[in-house]
Amino acid sequence: MKPFDKKIWLSSPTMHGDELKYMQEAYDTNWMTTAGSNLVEVEKILKDYMDMKEVVALSSGTSALHMAVKLAGIKRGEKVFCSTLTFSATVNPIVYEGGIPVFIDSEYDTWNMDPAALEKAFELYPEVRVVVLVHLYGVPAKMDEIKLICEKHGAILIEDAAESLGATYKGKQTGSFGKYSIISFNGNKIITGSSGGALLTNDIFSAHKTRKWSTQSREAAVWYQHEEIGYNYRMSNVIAGVVRGQFPYLENHIAQKKEIFNRYKEGLKDLPVSMNPYDELIVEPNFWLSCMMIKNEAFGKHVRSDKEALYVKEAGKTTPTEILEKLANINAEGRPIWKPMHLQPIFRMNPYVTRYGDGRAQTNAYLSEVVIDVSADIFNRGLCLPSDNKMTEAEQNIIIEMIRKCFE
Ligand SMILES: *Cc1c(COP(=O)(O)O)cnc(C)c1O
Fold it and tell me: What integer is the mean pLDDT of 327-335?
């Protein structure tokens, strides 16, 4: 197959023109700083869209998570429950504050935090007060179950909706369930500011604290007076201009991503694979990334070390590594599933809980027929497909054809 002349990206920024207008406005009015009308507007737009009382625009999703972890009052040495199947940015802010992440396994229905594993974790660590939950690849987690467990144990829910802006659970936006929630405007997200993020909460005091902390914690004095440690985490008014220009196109991007997802689903439907799942009666994902998982019967021999992967080609079988290689050969970008945090060298000493209990005590990833490490299984057999919303149907058909070849 002939490689694409222009690379098909996993997910790249899609600009529309309005972004420049608002950036220009920041320039022309000389509000080239972390204050100005774009910032005011972005916070207002987000408040309305998310139906949240308070929104603080920040420099990144990661800084927003850091603020959320501080607001939750995590202390040095305190354990915090956190989704294991996620990007490291979900977890790192816990560690910035000296907390100890306790990783929670996924379920197969949405790939997000398994409520049964979370319940098990509260049995093992009843003292835990904070849960950090992610909505992976734009598919909402099982919110009713998770909320109920958090309430039962009096735990604070921090929601990482960095990948799921615009996705809803029973008609309610992801990012509006947590006591503190965050979103991200990183370059590859569903809409972007090139960078940027926001903290969302219904608690006015927490929003006030975040505004203060994120602008170096100045006290109300004429000089620079400080009673608390500060951070330089506020969003720039120029970045806010980009976000402001992008926002009207959010629904448009979601519709395009949904089309891409459905085309993959249709094009791969007779293969031994499944797409990243969701329950259409309960949720509407934002379809940020289309992902697939190879069924066991078609999953070839595949091993990964810390930095390399090897597979054996067998007729009728394939592996994520083979598919990613073949896509790269035609100049299309896929990606492995996020490698679970409990499998990362940096977190090898951290506890891990599955629905069967202490995940570290499980000597094998597979116990007879029962998979006991769901997130590791999704990582092993899954991959993210090229999901750029500028990819044409013709281009996607070629990608689908290439994937089909891997199963020959
Ligand atoms: C992108 C992302 C973040 C971090 O957002 P940044 O704006 O890049 O700091 C956090 N969590 C998840 C799940 C993400 O995908």
Answer: 98
